[in-house]
Each structure stands twice: as structure tokens, then as C-alpha cells.
Automatic annotation (TrEMBL):
It comes from the Bacteria. The gene is cadA. It comes from Flagellimonas profundi. Gene3D superfamilies: Calcium-transporting ATPase, cytoplasmic domain N, Calcium-transporting ATPase, cytoplasmic transduction domain A, HAD superfamily/HAD-like. This is P-type Zn(2+) transporter. NCBIfam families: ATPase-IB2_Cd, ATPase-IB_hvy, ATPase_P-type.
Length: 655
């Protein structure tokens, strides 16, 4: 919306529908204190003029304060707060939008002036203006965490070019370039740490404020603050693809995806407002045909009260503000919802489906057990490592992390046996490394104890004799047990694991973590089929949590798709509806709680607005309520709803 230089914050129809991408509306040319004073000056001026006018009326201290002098005084009090609203109402009418709140407030207050109720007319518009200022402050507060993210986005990078480090715009840095980050500076792009160690504050990315220690060759993320010593980083992504930029895009675009409640209230307001106008007209004139003592002024006054009370401000302000507060609270906790619609959808989830590797486990294989039959462990591992050096499999990487002392030995003539393992020569001995099928195909006897092993197993044979085996396992995440327990405590009735890993390992992990049921050995299309079957069940709302490219189809089809933002693939993150920046599955329970808190506050505001308005409408139509009660029913309720929505920004969700 085009920013207009007016004293009262200029509210267009889009803003009233909850699209908070607007400027704050006050003049930013001067210092902040002066700017705020200019914003509040019209309301202060009108308030002082109104109080003086009421006092003079009440005490009747000045006999000349009558007639045109009194009208001029209250008109002067009215204009600073009333003119911007009247102008906005007129602009809306010119664009074919007659029934706006600006129109309602303008007609009600000008009508009050027409029947001589000058103080009430000024008071209604003054309190409306104050409500607008409160709304502006609440929106700015809700946007504070997004501003913090904007501040976290680096605006320069120190990059090595032609033998020297030069300062450049991060958008000009290419993948693979070396950048240097000094103490207290933000890392400008995602990359790999080249220095031995780094201590980073990753709060802007993960929502966790505690320092994070990163070692050489590990990933670092743009927006993280370097806490100790100068570090060097090799960039792995362009600036536009970096984590902080992606987060900003998600959060800033989130408000565009409205919840069903928001959309309903918007549609309702557009139908409700014209009905209110015609009811007010009817309330003014219809009693003439049924009452003998009909007084036009009295019924017009009641109709004006009806208009003020009926203004849908509290609903169209507080509901989107509530969702906006929920989005902000979630992002402060390292959880990014891509829209208010998903914040609402997660409250309806009753079935959670989780991937295994990278979701409840770390996705990093470790040696669990070493059993030898011919040699001592160190010698056995040298033979095994010599062979695995020729492989790029993740299990090979886990084996190569073993630290063996002594002279390294090399494998030669290494060839792959499809689906079974490797064959080669080490120290002039024929060596086989692989699974049980490889041993069986070469007539090598394997101990029967291996039949009961669930974990991934790598066997070694030297010169056609079994030499031992190594078991490899993926570690559970530290909060995996806690995650399942908290998801159950959040009221989720069914928790399921679907994995591409072999079924025996999947069942073992499932048993450890107390899943309701699990299934392994699944291809991406198999996972998709399982979730589709779940969704066919009546009243089942499915949330799927995953991290890999293979999870993208399931993330897309789920009612709520949740991706791991750290380990997760870019495809999964782009497809998901919710991103957990810390890679902690326990954050899902917190996401559900934030969604429920947001929904609770939104419905509290709806109930408050409808309840109070209905009560005062009945009183107004019966001639009991005055314009002052109408002010409370409109602006007062709006202020209460705004303050209620702001509570979301102070809430803590301990999980």
C-alpha cells in the first residue's frame, strides 16, 4: 500500500484484513523520539481539547461557550483524528468499497455532530484513533523477531581474492571461495569451516542462544555470530540460497497464507458490514410506522450507537494479529511455519508419521561392536580399513573413523561384488569385505551368532577364512525419547515410523522409542502409499516429519509436512510446511503447543468481540446504552483483543 504522510497511522483495507507488510505509517525522516511524538500528537491534541470542552460544559464556567463557538471548539478537537478516517472512507468509496469501518466511523461521528452530541462524536473518533495507535504498536512488536532476523543478515563479506582479503557484498561471493570472519562478526554465507574450531552463536538460525562449538570440515550457517578468534570458511552456497535468506523469505511470506479462520472473518466482515448499515437505517425510520411518540433524533442516536458498536475492528485486527504473534513466537523457538494456515492445521493433527534416519537418529553411522576371529583388533581393523578406503559408502566412512596405530597398509586390485561387498588384495592376501551373502557365495563359514544381529554388519575374510565382523549403527538423537513422550503428552493418539532402512533395524529403533508401529525397507513410493492409506481413514489428520529428498513426496501429501532445517535436504525444506531449524524432533511438540495457544487466543478474541458487541447492541437498540458504551464495545474490545493477542509474544512453552 502506498504510504501516505498523515498524522494518524493510515490504514488501508489490506491492512485491516491482516496483511501486515505495511510501513508503520509515521514519518521516519527525523529521530525516533520526534517521529513517535508526531504520531501521537493528533490524539493528544484532540484529547486535551475534548477534556477542556467537557469540563467547560459541565461547570458552565464560560457563558459564551455556546452556539457556534462550542461547535467550532469540538470541530477543532475532531479534525486531527477524524479527517484521516473520513478521507480513507472517501477513498474506499471512490474505489467501489462502500461498507468499510472508515465509512461506519465517519457516518456515526458526523451523525453525532448533526444531532448536537459533539463530545460523543469527538470521543468515538478519538478512541478509534487511539485503538489504531495501539494496533500499530502491537504489530511492530510482533514484527520484532523478524526485524531481528533482518539485522542478522550480513551486509558484507571478507573474501580472499588475489592473495588478499577484501570486503565485498555477500551477493558477489561465489561457491568455493574462502572468506574470513572476525570475532563478533556474522558469517555471511553458508559454508564449511576451514579453521580447527569455532564457537558460534546460532540463535538467528536455530532459536537456541547457547554457543555452539563447530569443528573443522563441519557446516556453518549464514547469520551465525563468531564468538572466539578469527575463522576461515569455504562457501558452499550462494547468498540467495543461504540459510538466513531462506528463513527470511519463509517468515516474511508466511502472513500471505491465511488460516481458514482468518479467511472466514474477512468474508464475514464484508457481508456483515452492509447488513449493519441497512439495519441502522431501519432502526432510524421503521419505528415511525409503529410508535405514536416517535422522535427522529432519539432513534437516529440509537442507530448511530448501533453503527459504532457494529464496527468489526476487533475481529479484523486481532485475529490476524494473533496468528502473526504465533508465527513470530514459533520462529523465536527455531520453528518456522510457512503460513498461518499451517499454524492452524497442526492443531488438528492426531497421527504423526516419522522418518528414521536423520529425523529420530543422527544420520551418522558409528562402529558399535568389533568381533575378531584370527587377529587382534588393531590388525583386523587395518585390513578392513585398507579395503574400505576404496569405497564411498556411508558405512565405509564410519569404519575409516577408527583410529589404528602403526604403519598403514594398502589394498590393491579392489573390485566391487554387486550388492555384496568388495574383493581385493592386502599384504598379498586375498581379502573379502561385505555382507553374509558375500561370505556364502565364497563358501566361507560364518558364526551362527551373526544370525541374530539386527544392526548393519560388515564381515571380513582373509584367504578364504572368516576373520571377524564389525557392526555399524546409527545413533539416536539426544532428544529422541523425549520427543516421542512429549508428542504423546500433547495428545497425539498414534505415532508411526516409516523408513527406507532394513525392517529389522527399523523395528529395533521403534521398540526403543515406543512407536505404535513401524515399517522398514520402504522405497519413497511405498512411504507415500502408507501415508495415503492413513489419510483415507475418517477423521485422521497426518503430520509427517522427515529430512531427505526421498521424503519430499510424503511431506507434500501430508496435512502438515515437517522438515529438519539443519540436516534436511533443500528439496525437503522447500516442500515442507514447517521447518525445525534445530533438527530436534522434540520441537514438534512445542510447535503443536504454539499452534494451540494461538488458536485459543484467536477464539477468545472472537468470543469477546461478539459477546460484548451483541450485549451493547441490544442495550443501544433499546435506548439504554449511550455513545460511551458504544465506544467501549468497539474500541475498548479491540484494545482488549489486541492486548490478548500480544500475550503470545510473552508466552513460554516448556517441553
Amino acid at each position: 500500500m502506498k504510504k501516505k504522510k498523515v498524522k494518524l497511522r493510515d490504514l488501508g483495507s489490506k491492512e485491516r484484513q491482516g496483511e501486515y507488510g505495511h510501513e508503520s505509517g509515521h514519518n521516519h525522516d527525523g529521530p525516533e523520539g520526534v517521529s513517535k511524538f508526531k504520531t501521537y500528537l493528533p490524539a493528544i491534541f484532540s484529547f486535551v481539547m475534548l477534556i477542556i470542552g467537557i469540563a467547560v460544559d459541565y461547570f458552565d464556567a464560560f457563558p459564551f461557550f455556546k452556539g457556534w463557538i462550542r461547535i467550532a471548539w469540538y470541530t477543532l478537537a475532531y479534525l486531527p483524528v477524524g479527517f484521516p478516517v473520513i478521507r480513507e472512507g472517501w477513498n474506499s468509496i471512490k474505489h467501489g468499497d462502500f461498507f468499510t469501518e472508515f465509512f461506519l466511523m465517519s457516518i456515526a461521528t458526523l451523525g453525532a455532530f448533526a444531532i448536537g452530541e459533539y463530545p460523543e462524536g469527538v470521543a468515538v473518533m478519538l478512541f478509534y484513533a487511539v485503538g489504531e495507535l495501539f494496533q500499530n504498536a502491537a504489530v511492530n512488536r510482533a514484527k520484532g523477531n523478524i526485524k531481528a532476523l533482518l539485522d542478522a543478515r550480513p551486509d558484507e563479506a571478507l573474501v580472499l581474492r588475489n592473495g588478499n582479503f577484501v570486503t565485498v557484498n555477500p551477493q558477489t561471493v561465489e561457491i568455493g571461495e574462502r572468506i574470513q570472519v572476525r570475532v563478533g562478526e556474522k558469517i555471511p554465507l553458508d559454508g564449511i569451516l576451514l579453521s580447527e574450531r569455532a564457537s558460534l552463536n546460532t540463535a538467528a538460525i536455530t532459536g537456541e542462544s547457547k554457543p555452539d562449538t563447530i569443528n573443522r570440515d563441519e557446516k556453518v550457517y549464514a547469520g551465525s555470530i563468531n564468538l572466539e578468534g578469527v575463522i576461515d570458511v569455504e562457501t558452499s552456497k550462494e547468498f540467495k540460497d543461504s540459510s538466513i535468506t531462506r528463513i527470511l523469505d519463509m517468515v516474511q511470506n508466511a502472513t500471505a497464507r491465511k488460516s481458514k479462520t482468518e479467511l472466514f472473518i474477512r468474508r464475514f466482515a464484508r457481508i456483515y458490514t452492509p447488513i449493519v448499515v441497512f439495519l441502522a437505517i431501519g432502526l432510524t425510520f421503521l419505528p415511525y410506522f409503529f410508535l405514536n411518540d416517535y422522535v427522529f433524533r432519539d432513534w437516529l442516536y440509537r442507530a448511530l450507537i448501533f453503527l459504532v458498536v457494529s464496527c468489526p475492528c476487533a475481529l479484523v485486527i486481532s485475529i490476524p494479529l494473533g496468528y502473526f504473534g504465533g508465527l513470530g513466537a514459533a520462529s523465536r523457538n527455531g520453528i518456522l511455519f510457512k503460513g498461518a494456515s499451517f499454524l492452524e492445521a497442526i492443531t488438528k493433527v492426531n497421527t504423526v508419521v516419522m522418518d528414521k534416519t536423520g529425523t529420530v537418529t543422527k544420520g551418522v553411522f558409528k562402529i558399535k561392536e568389533i568381533k575378531t576371529a584370527q587377529f587382534e583388533e588393531a590388525k583386523f581393523m587395518k585390513y578392513l580399513m585398507a579395503m574400505e578406503e576404496q569405497s564411498t559408502h556411508p558405512i565405509a566412512k564410519a569404519i575409516l573413523e577408527y583410529k589404528a596405530e602403526g604403519t598403514d597398509i594398502k589394498a590393491t586390485d579392489v573390485s566391487e561384488v554387486a550388492g555384496k561387498g568388495l574383493r581385493g588384495t592386502v599384504n598379498e592376501k586375498t581379502v573379502l569385505v561385505g555382507n553374509k551373502a558375500l561370505m556364502a557365495s565364497n563358501n566361507i563359514d560364518v558364526p551362527s551368532e551373526t544370525d541374530d544381529i539386527v544392526d548393519s554388519i560388515v564381515m571380513l575374510a582373509i584367504d578364504e577364512k572368516f576373520a571377524g565382523y564389525v557392526t555399524i549403527a546409527d545413533e539416536l538423537k539426544e532428544d529422541a525419547h523425549l520427543a516421542i513422550q512429549q508428542i504423546r503428552d500433547a495428545g497425539i493418539s498414534k505415532i508411526i515410523m516409516l523408513s527406507g532402512d532394513k525392517d529389522s533395524i527399523t523395528q529395533q529403533v521403534s521398540k526403543k522409542l515406543n512407536f505404535d508401529w513401524a515399517k522398514g525397507g520402504l522405497l519413497p513410493e511405498d512411504k507415500l502409499g502408507e501415508v495415503e492409506e492413513l489419510k483415507k481413514q475418517s477423521d485422521t489428520k497426518v503430520a509427517f516429519m522427515g529430512d531427505g529428498i526421498n521424503d519430499a513426496p510424503v511431506l507434500a501429501i501430508s496435512d502438515v509436512g515437517i522438515a529438519m532445517g539443519g540436516l534436511g535436504s533443500d528439496v525437503a525444506i522447500e516442500t515442507a510446511d514447517v521447518i525445525i531449524q534445530t533438527d530436534q524432533p522434540s520441537k514438534m511438540a512445542r510447535a503443536i503447543k504454539i499452534g494451540r495457544s494461538t488458536r485459543k487466543i484467536v477464539w477468545q478474541n472472537i468470543g469477546l468481540a461478539f459477546g460484548v458487541k451483541a450485549f451493547v447492541l441490544i442495550l443501544g437498540a433499546g435506548g439504554v446504552a449511550t455513545m460511551w458504551e458504544a465506544v467501549f464495545a468497539d474500541v475498548g474490545v479491540a484494545l482488549l483483543a489486541i492486548l490478548n493477542a500480544v500475550r503470545l509474544q510473552r508466552m513460554k512453552w516448556n517441553t
